[in-house]
Amino acid sequence: MLVDDPQVSRRHLALEPRSGGLFVIDLGSANGTILNGNRITEARLQTGDQVVLGESRLRFGGPEPTGEAEAARPEPVRSAPSTVALTAPGSAPPAPPAPPGVLAPPEGGAVRSTIALHPREAIYEQVEPGPAGGGDLTAELLAECTWTDELVNQAGIPIVDCPLVTVGGGLGSFALVDFLRIAGVPAGQIRVLSLLEWPHQTYQYLAEASQIRGDDRLRSDSMSRIDNIWGFPSYALEEAMRGRTLAPLWRVLTEPVLSEYYNPKAADMYSGVEREARRIGWPSMLVAGQVRVVRPRSGGGYFVVLTPPPGDGPTKRIAYRARFVHVAVGYPSLRFLPDLQQYRATYNDFYRVVNAYEQHGHVYEALDRSPGTVVVRGAGIVASRILERLAEGRERGSQTQVIHLLRRKVDGPTGGPFFRRPGGDGFAYQPFTYAKAAGSGQLRQRALRLEGQERADYLRSIGGTTTSKRKLWQDQLAKGRAEGWYRLQIGEVQEVGPAPDGQSVLTKVKTGDGSTVDIDADFIIDATGLEGDIRDHRLLSDLLDCAGAGTNASGRIDVDQHFEVRGTQSGDGRLFASGSVAAGGYLPPADSFWGVEHAALEICDELARLGFCRHVGTVRSIRQWWRWMRGVPI
Amino acid sequence: MTPTLRGRIESRLFLIGTIGVIWTAWISAVLPRPAMASMGRIYGITFRALAFMAVAGIAWELIYHGLQQFRWNKDWPSLFGLLTAVNEGLVTWLALHALNVMPGTSGWSSPLRNMFLIFFLTTWLAIWLFMQGPLRVVVLRWRFEGGRIRL
Predict the structure, then answer these.
(1) What is the pTM of this model?
(2) Is residue A469 a contact partner of residue A429, using CB atoms and an 8 Å limit?
(3) Peptide linkage before B103 cis (omega within 30 of 0)
(4) Is A26 helix (H, G, I), strand (E, B) or coil?
């Protein structure tokens, strides 16, 4: 189906009939796919559902698809128009102008949804279709959890052998591949299956949507260099040398007592990743496509089924036969607060109620143009950055009123003398997502000894919703309070709906004393950053159903200390997961630069024990570091 | 990188045993030497001082670790690690006298004072600088394992 809309990516979404019904799958589009007000990566469609892409809306109005297995009636997207109606773009709400988001197709303006978007520098497998079958997943394959080589052959799906496959292609995959290449694994033994061209692409997209530009600093420390496995030279040292200034070093040496924690600049992180990706031959390992399932293979190892972009090969799927599989697909999905989701679904208003993680530059543009009121919800790091952006608008002369709506107020430090977290003005403060010692120190040791619900509770106590106590933010909000344009409102939201005149959004809030307050606002920004359930993600869901994976008490994929997914061993094969997918495990900040690097080291060491690669000892480490310093490719 | 108590102790012993020994072996030969002290005696003093830094260091690390328990991040600035040269240097100086490593000299006016100051501060600085970066290359797992020495 073609949609003539500049905000629609070339390959934006796919509709796939499956045994459970019709599914909508976002194909890594720039502006996202919104289902009933929720940004999704994939979801099952039900009658009456609305899917929004750019300025276009699809309404799913047809009968529920039959329960036939997908492969029994393989239908390409264009054959399903009976179930989908396209509303004229003109009737859609005003939408933000096309942002320079990194996931946007490279050629800019004249984007059409007909051309396949996939990494320009990816490799293409030279495959022949199998002797029989149509090269697609069959009902038999889907029904069978463990696959034999014959079963895959019968379906006509070409098999590519590769010892190690990493699924995702984001920072989690990158960290692992970087370690493996440094450990001496040839590029030919690794495949990265991804729709991304560069590892930092999704990260950068989310950062830019939440108003973190290249010059802004990330909530990460100097040593957590994702492009340098040694963390040396650190971001601060490099920034000091480049800028010929001692300031970043002074910060690192005196943090967090005499100065704030040093944080690296977003742009430095991006350029570093791109440089290192080139050095280790990332494009030569990258295969464009979406991974559909990972299934254990009878006899050991796994089959990883890839759906390449249309037209890239003779068959709809390619199966990778791998001994080792690594899954690092990032957030399963991002969710709205339930009341805001309800509002967006009921009133189809994607203009006034936005998520901090979606492109919402139109909010700031409108507020910069004319006075208005904005409600910000959430008290995490993203909320802080959104508030900073609004304060910047004020400094430039806007007349924005900001109402910061929170459920609970943190009005001071919390915890006992040995476990005291600073807080105040509604925020709980800590420099990173978890207390610093959760990365490598005693708090991490503690997490290593805890299991089940106890660990989940512990992780919540040292993590949770927090922000950094940056002086800039403190000053801006103090000024806002003094000048009366920033106000904290505590209470439970009862309902969100349009104001009677239809020109604004009304939030009914029940305050602590039982009274109800109506907040009339032009915009609501959901900065709570709620993450979806791993069941929202088809691949992860399938791992739970078919590969033996389980969830931990925090609802993520259960991994052991070495990030191996428990219960998934297949002969001599091993399945690993890292990043957001593996949060809630023994390493609290699993979903951070530090966490994916630490996971990469653990996995690499485990692979060395299994004989796949060399153990990186002192000599190799020093030699490889020297190569890194000179920028010598490997 | 936030060290664990065990990591702190392992790091200290490892660094004293490597960087500390190499540096002491070299600098002892070029330290300002009063007429009364032979080269052999200087080596005796510096290496005993180094050994004391290692042994007493375990107690020091316990104290530092204890102090950090009052902090949410269980961490303090890297610079403090440099400044602890003051208390540790003082105690080492006093201990060397108490243990009779430097007989015939006493107090601040000791002819060995400058020798000791240069030895102690440069050794301290060398170890501290090494810990700020190069150690992460030599022991790749050091920073992930809270300062433990796992090669």
Answers:
(1) 0.84
(2) yes
(3) no
(4) strand
